[in-house]
Amino acid sequence: MAALTMADPARADFFHSMYGYGGHGASLPPPVVLTSTWWDEQKIEETVCPRYIRERITDSALRRKLEEPLKFGEGLTEATYSEWIVEHTRKFFLILCDLGCPEYIFNIIDGSWDDEDLPLSMATIERLELPAVSQDKKFAKKQYAYLVRELAEGQHTDFEDEELVPLEVMSRRTQPGSAKQTVEKVYFPRSREVYYSRRRVPLGYGSHQLPVESFLEELETLNSITHDHIVKLHLSYTHENVGFLVLSPALELNIKSFIQYPPTTWKSNTKEERRRIIFNWVLCLSDALAYLYDRGIAHGDIKPSSIIIEQKTNRIFLSDISNSKRLDPTQNIPQSPNCGGIQDMEAYEYGAPELWQRTLVSQESSSPPTNTIFSGRTYRKSSTHSEDSISITNSTQIGQWTAFASNPSKSDVFSLACIFLEIFTFHAKRKTTAFASHRSHKNRRSRESAPPDSSFHSNLGQVETWITDSLMKDARKKMDIPFSDGLGLCREMLQRDPENRPDPRGVVGRLYHTVVAPAVAPELPHCGSSEVDVPMGLFTGWKDESGRSLSTASSLGRASKRSTISTINSSDKRWMAI
Questions:
Q1: What are the CA-CA distances from residue 565 to residues 156, 226, 558 (Å)?
Q2: Domains plus CATH for the chain?
Q3: 123-173 pLDDT per residue, tens
Q4: CA separation for the pair 308, 317 (Å, rounded)
Q5: Distance from first CA to last CA of the chain, Å, rounded?
Q6: pTM of the full predicted structure?
Q7: GO MF terms on file (predicted)?
């Protein structure tokens, strides 16, 4: 319930269309004036005071009565009506002011009502005997404006339909790859500087709805995920047969938007700092994926829109894990006949080969055979003969998309490698659009047909030449061994046969050794799991709990770092990275 003023709607729509992100490093600024009318406990307590009460009661006789002792107390209390309103009937008084009869608060107090009795049912409201019968329904509705329940981090709240939810909406956008799923940018009225993302989940047993029991089960799983680089469930609630997920950080800037329009915070970093951030990104993402599989959770939808960058800090996050995908009611919408039956083109382009396969179906028809496109290729198998002037054609047609994924972790590793290559392309100051054009170079179609297939899985040969002739060439020219090692790992992750790809934890181990190289970063990375023989003198910024710096290897010998654990244990000493 916010009033926005001096905001340009056209400009806002432009920014929102860019995935909630303003190009060239500028995010949508807050409006100049932002006022809220949420009546939470703090505002009620700050508003209803003796002066406020006297200003609302204009009758001079009733003003004098405010300072008289209560009638119903029978000597048990010396409190005056004014004091009783402040202590026990603030909300009642505000509701009556809204109804235009603040003086009726005396009847409420004499009838032994107080704020603890709220909310009241219609039958109970009739017992109040308000001045006008028409005010009963108004009271029933307006009382909830002063009964706002606060949302707490890590908790789930079930709101009644009449209740108000204290969240302000800044913008709305449609989730990429989804026809109906909307993501809202929201904030709490008293914390306007911190933004979150909110998703809606229709609850019920109808089409594109999720049973409440299943919704609560998914919440339990999402609440169990705690990783520094996975978007977390901040809180959840239900309201008017809809479940809501409030996520942190806000899903504003994805990796694709970041690469296209690097924000000013990125440009202000030095060349060495940008290099260190890039290598930490790939390590942190791989560690986040390994964390999920360590807990038996598959991601299943790694693509640019599921990789989030926090603009102010340049921190990277993995979002849209398979559990939250299940909470998307549009996942069960039938595939569109356009784009070859593919609804989410981004998922197709970054998906593993085993997830996007089609079977060839042979069938007889009286019409001439036609060419059919399959992953950018044209297949035609036909034989015709004439019998009594009737032409019979045996044609081979393409069936529906079929997934043959026996090991989801290996499929996610393939998709993650696609993201890594785009990050490395950005690091090498190459255009990702040029990379996409290179992938589809041998897979182009006629001008009148669909766009060329630039998916990774259909163009692995072109992906290999991009690595060899562009990125690897640049790495060798600069004698950049860590960059070369990272590209070599991407090659293994992109193997067509899933069994030849490393598992998620194996990717973390390989990248950890790459990131700890002195050429990449002078300090230990904050993600990963490995044991390396390195002199501690190479790492700076490490201190023990008393604040003493560590600069030699004599006290630790071997440096060990465990995923999502920020301590190092050795020789009965506990060291902490800050």
A1: 27, 11, 17
A2: 41-146 (no CATH), 264-328+410-577 (1.10.510), 334-402 (no CATH)
A3: 999 999 999 989 999 999 999 999 999 999 999 999 999 999 999 999 888
A4: 5
A5: 40
A6: 0.75
A7: ATP binding; protein serine/threonine kinase activity
